[in-house]
């Protein structure tokens, strides 16, 4: 796949290829559960979607297992510096004034010119941010001191100093040129960057956590930090813009040593902290609707989704074959038992062994999304099937989970077709005039307007979202291409390419593994590394799309269009074109090596068996989170876009999406069903007939749009699929919006605002130059009094 015009996969040169275990070459599939294609039932996944995973999990994912030895090195650097000033006490025994004094000393030492000395001090600060773990006896205690130390570091101004140092490292041309010339890049090439990014990530991630026990001054510090992080205070741009710049520099090949996983994690958490998560999005939406005088939302989408239950997955191919074989055997037995044709009137040959009843039973128990075609062409007249007892039937919910919606455009189309049919003329965009239309049409319009989806025209307020959009606007296309390149390289379906980017720079050690155990551990680390990158990128893209859409629709459309131009739609479909259950249940983690567990407890001896067994979790939280995010992004890109919906059809997404329904998690199934719904009428009658369970699931779980006959395709769009025309029209509107709001040079006079009010134009004060004022009488005589004026011509 080509993202933004350049191929991107996972590059592994010869030296790195030797460093990876055999199973890692190409696609490393260790520790993934057995192929589950042949299983017909999977357990319900007890997964609760949220902005992030638990705090401990988010902290542990910052560090690769290869970085393990550096925890002790950070401690050593801190204690050497600490013992110079305090020799008889531990850090946890000092009072607040002494803590502050030492933090200030470390901050002053960061300004030295010697790189080695600066790195030691940075490691000492990192040890503080890690909770001075050597003096703690439990993970809870480590997290307590982390929070205390990080608020202290932030209060003395550490974050601003770290941003300056990070800028220095980004512009360090010597390190960049050295990394470009190296045949193989490892952890050692990014040491300084990793230490700085680790501290910054720990600070952002810890401060954004809500804790009811926080002191009032901490709450003030937190809100101030949130504002500063989203404002152009650091290098005259929000911190997120600087991190986006690191991503594009890495993808361009000028800085292959950048630790991209840490950059992406810090970028994600910075956006999440400054703009807010999904709960905050909902509250902003409610507030804006109130301000615009719009009716309140009919439901809270987050709560509705959390209350939904998963449907059973579709039957696999092997299950369907087995069902067909059983059905054939039963029909054969039934025919043998039938003595003669007269018995047909006395006994139904399909009563006990009726193939269709068995099929219904299987479908009801399975809720299979993949129903089989019925034997419709039967000549014999058959009695109606015996109804099942109520207990055997699926219990449907009393009501549908979503309130129906309709757009104003849909009401216009309905009225236009009604006027054309009954009266013979149309009125354009008039949605109120119903003169001459029958009474049922009046009732229909009344019903449609009760569920009308309102949109407000409002001024864009200056907020964190607006500042971020303004910051990334000049290079937004490059940022989107860079993110998709890295996503493609990290996807499990990607194959190694010689010309693609290397995303393993911050996970590969300097020396290659020498034992089987080391190779297995590195294999787990590499897979985990890729999964975390996918998680971060999917979260970044979804958050930006949602916030831009809420801030201004054209900001959302601009970003979405560049994602489409960079082949985001086929990329996501390629990601899902795998055994998705194996990806979601993958066990690429070693819990005893996760921070902070590994710095508090004695580590047990790792064995090949313990690595193979993995953890006891039912599923991998980050992988399920990533899958749901990617599905939501795909929904946002294709919603109400005919040409993009046709891309889903052309890329044959239906079978790929149907396989994703195997995952028994309500939220993931909902977004898969939404994607299937928008393309159902283009898939043909045979597909709909063969997938009636899919249609039923869509009806039950997806919001209904009145007048949308998605299930039948009667009003199939006669428009030709002109991708370029639709996208170009949208692009012209977006460019007009961007030029009008953000082009301060006003290079195009067509976009300048025009004052059409005569009084305000004449009332403007115009400052005339001094020489004109001195010669005003002469000007009047020459230009006014001495020239004849033809009033008739002037008035005409």
Automatic annotation (TrEMBL):
In this protein, which residues make up the domain named Far11/STRP N-terminal? 42-340
Give the stretches traversing the membrane.
Answer: none
Residue stretches of biased makeup (Basic and acidic residues): 24-37, 333-354
**Major location (coarse):** cytoplasm
The Gene Ontology CC terms held by the record are: cytosol
GO annotation, biological process: cytoskeleton organization
Query: Taking every annotated instance into account, which residue ranges of this chain make up the domain Far11/STRP C-terminal?
Result: 438-776
UniProt keyword terms in alphabetical order: Cytoplasm, Phosphoprotein
A Pfam family hit: N1221
In this chain, the stretch annotated as Disordered covers 1-43, 313-396
**InterPro entries reported for this sequence:** Far11/STRP, Far11/STRP_C, Far11/STRP_N
Q: Where in the cell is it found?
A: Cytoplasm
Composition bias type Acidic residues, residue spans: 355-369
Give the family per the record: Belongs to the STRIP family.
Primary role: Plays a role in the regulation of cell morphology and cytoskeletal organization. Required in the cortical actin filament dynamics and cell shape. Part of the striatin-interacting phosphatase and kinase (STRIPAK) complexes. STRIPAK complexes have critical roles in protein (de)phosphorylation and are regulators of multiple signaling pathways including Hippo, MAPK, nuclear receptor and cytoskeleton remodeling. Different types of STRIPAK complexes are involved in a variety of biological processes such as cell growth, differentiation, apoptosis, metabolism and immune regulation.
Descriptive protein name = Striatin interacting protein 1
């Amino acid at each position: 796949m080509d993202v933004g015009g350049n191929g991107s996969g996972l590059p592994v040169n010869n030296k790195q290829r030797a460093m990876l275990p055999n199973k890692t070459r190409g696609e490393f599939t260790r520790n993934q559960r057995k192929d589950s294609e042949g299983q017909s039932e999977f357990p319900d996944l007890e997964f609760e979607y949220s902005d992030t995973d638990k705090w401990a999990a988010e902290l542990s994912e910052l560090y690769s297992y290869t970085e393990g030895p550096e925890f002790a090195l950070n401690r050593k650097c801190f204690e050497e510096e600490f013992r110079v000033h305090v020799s008889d006490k531990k850090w946890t025994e000092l009072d607040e004034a002494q803590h502050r004094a030492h933090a200030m000393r470390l901050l002053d030492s960061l300004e030295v010119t010697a790189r080695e000395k600066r790195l030691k001090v940075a490691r000492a600060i990192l040890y503080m941010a890690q909770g001075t773990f050597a003096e703690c006896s439990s993970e809870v205690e480590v997290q307590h001191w982390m929070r205390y130390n990080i608020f202290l570091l932030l209060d003395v101004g550490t974050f601003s100093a770290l941003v300056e140092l990070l800028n220095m490292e980004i512009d360090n041309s010597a390190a960049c040129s050295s990394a470009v010339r190296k045949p193989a890049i490892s952890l050692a090439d990014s040491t300084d960057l990793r230490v700085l990014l680790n501290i910054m990530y720990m600070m952002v991630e810890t401060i954004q956590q809500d804790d009811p026990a926080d002191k009032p001054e901490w709450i003030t510090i937190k809100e101030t930090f949130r504002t500063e992080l989203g404002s152009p205070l650091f290098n005259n741009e929000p911190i997120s813009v600087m991190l986006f710049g690191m991503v594009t520099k890495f993808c361009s090949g000028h800085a292959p040593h950048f630790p991209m996983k840490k950059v992406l994690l810090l970028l994600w958490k910075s956006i999440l902290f400054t703009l807010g998560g999904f709960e905050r999005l909902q509250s902003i939406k409610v507030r804006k609707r109130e301000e615009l005088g719009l009716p309140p939302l009919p439901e809270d989408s987050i709560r509705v989704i959390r209350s939904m239950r998963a449907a059973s997955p579709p039957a696999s191919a092997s299950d369907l074959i087995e069902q067909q074989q059983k059905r054939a055997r039963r029909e054969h037995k039934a025919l043998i038992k039938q003595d003669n044709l007269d018995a047909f009137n006395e006994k139904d040959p399909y009563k006990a062994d009726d193939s269709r009843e068995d099929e219904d039973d299987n479908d009801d128990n399975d809720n299979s999304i993949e129903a089989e075609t019925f034997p419709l062409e039967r000549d014999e007249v058959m009695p109606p099937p015996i109804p099942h007892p109520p207990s055997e039937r699926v219990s449907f919910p009393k009501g549908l989970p979503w309130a129906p919606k309709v757009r104003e455009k849909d009401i216009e189309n309905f009225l236009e077709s009604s006027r054309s049919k009954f009266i013979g003329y149309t009125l354009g965009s008039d949605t109120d005039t119903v003169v001459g239309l029958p009474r049922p049409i009046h009732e229909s319009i009344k019903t449609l307007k009760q569920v009308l989806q309102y949109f407000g025209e409002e001024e864009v307020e200056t907020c964190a979202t607006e500042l971020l959009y303004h910051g990334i606007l000049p290079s937004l296309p490059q940022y989107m291409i860079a993110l998709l390149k890295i996503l493609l390289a990290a996807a499990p379906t990607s194959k190694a390419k010689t010309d693609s980017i290397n995303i393993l720079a911050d996970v590969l050690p300097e020396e290659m593994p020498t034992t089987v155990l080391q190779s297995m551990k590195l294999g787990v680390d590499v897979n985990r590394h890729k999964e975390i990158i996918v998680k971060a990128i999917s979260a970044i893209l979804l958050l930006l799309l949602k916030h831009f859409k809420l801030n201004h629709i054209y900001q959302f459309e601009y970003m979405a269009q560049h994602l489409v131009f960079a082949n985001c739609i086929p990329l996501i479909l390629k990601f899902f074109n795998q055994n998705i259950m194996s990806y979601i249940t993958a066990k690429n983690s070693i819990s005893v090596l996760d921070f902070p567990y590994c710095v508090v407890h004695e580590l047990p001896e790792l064995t090949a068996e313990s690595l193979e067994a993995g953890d006891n979790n039912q599923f991998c939280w980050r992988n399920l989170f990533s899958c749901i995010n990617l599905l939501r992004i795909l929904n946002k890109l294709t919603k109400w876009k005919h040409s993009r919906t046709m891309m889903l059809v052309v890329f044959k997404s239906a079978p790929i999406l149907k396989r994703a329904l195997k995952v028994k998690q309500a939220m993931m199934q909902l977004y898969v069903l939404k994607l299937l719904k928008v393309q159902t009428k283009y898939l043909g009658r045979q597909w709909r007939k063969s997938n009636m369970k899919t249609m039923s699931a869509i009806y039950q779980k997806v919001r209904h749009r009145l007048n949308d006959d998605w299930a039948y395709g009667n009003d199939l769009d006669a428009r030709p699929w002109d991708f370029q025309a639709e996208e170009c029209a949208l692009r012209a509107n977006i460019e007009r919006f961007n030029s009008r709001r953000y082009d301060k040079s006003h290079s195009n006079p067509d976009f300048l605002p025009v004052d059409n009010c005569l009084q305000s134009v004449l009332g403007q004060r115009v400052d005339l130059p001094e020489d004109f004022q001195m010669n005003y009488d002469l000007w009047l005589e020459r230009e006014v009094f001495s020239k004849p004026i033809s009033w008739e011509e002037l008035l005409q």
